[in-house]
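One record is set out below.
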Amino acid sequence: DVLSDEQLSTITSLSCSGFDKSDEEKVVNVEGIENLINLRGLYLGGNIIETINLNSLSQLVTLVIDQNQLQELDLSNNNNLDLLSAKYNQLSNIKISYNNRLRDVSIDHNQLTKFEGYNLPELDRIHISNNKLTTLTFNNPNKLREIVANNNLLTNADFTNVPHLKSLTLSQNQLTSVNLTSISNLVSLYLNDNLLTSLNLT
């Protein structure tokens, strides 16, 4: 049976994991998902999804879409998003600036060359290891406490505008300098396997 628009609008959570399924059973196409306008939780990990349009899902709070084949992800209209997990994709472009409620981001194991976290005032934790990052910047990260960005291509790191940072892990990069000036709450710092010649902790 085909669901009416009214019936679709009552769906608030959709889970269709493909981790334990054969390729023939995995989800490939999510066309029409934009009609689930009141969706708050979306769980699509372990499938073969290459593209997804989430622009109309303004109520979305949780998105788990690990281990797919996404190359781009636009979340600029998902202003209620709290948790994003999109590990093990092929992402080279992701738009998550101005997500005012976004708190937890896991986007490890992708193809990202830069991350610019603008206007993410609630961001608490970001894991972005095993990408190709050369740039990692944050603008006004009022609550950011944990950054894990191992195994990238970062050459320098300046987190002087992340005053509440408690845990920073940047091992296996190409860092020559790290500036942590004025970060008084830092309790955990991992910088193994870099090329450091300067480390400013004053």
Summary: The longest helix spans residues 5-8. The helical segments are 5-8.
